[in-house]
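Hello,

Our lab assistant flagged a job as stuck in the queue for most of the afternoon. It eventually completed. Since we weren't sure the result was trustworthy after the delay, we are filing this so someone can double-check. Below is the sequence as submitted and the structure that was eventually returned. Let us know if re-running is recommended.
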Amino acid sequence: MLARRTTAFVRTGVLAATGAALTALCTGTSSAGTNGQQIHFRDQRGDVYSVSLSGTNQNGESVSHCFDTPGPDNYLSGWWWKDDLTITWYPSAGCDGTAIEPSPEVFTIPPSQPSDWYLITDK
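-- returned structure --
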């Protein structure tokens, strides 16, 4: 009886692992890379604690969002951008306070590229 339970347990574990692997493979990357990019913001100056992004998303809609940027490398995930993207730098979290110069800046984000991430730095 113990051998049957162990075998059933092992089969269940293998099936669960296989299902998880297939889900990961089928899900693949989101639309970033082929119809918009996620932004990798690098704070080279060390004085930007949030950024406001305004532009066109992967669906062609005009959208805006504020992201806190607590470190030197910030991956602003979950939002995909393409074409002209306006970025405003802020010295505090929550896009609060007076914008840091030179701000706002406009970047042209390619709809397609090999990576899901488009690097933007504050100069």
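-- support follow-up --
The delay was a queue issue, not a problem with the job. The result is valid. The longest helix spans residues 2-27. Residues 4-32 have pLDDT under 50 and may be disordered.
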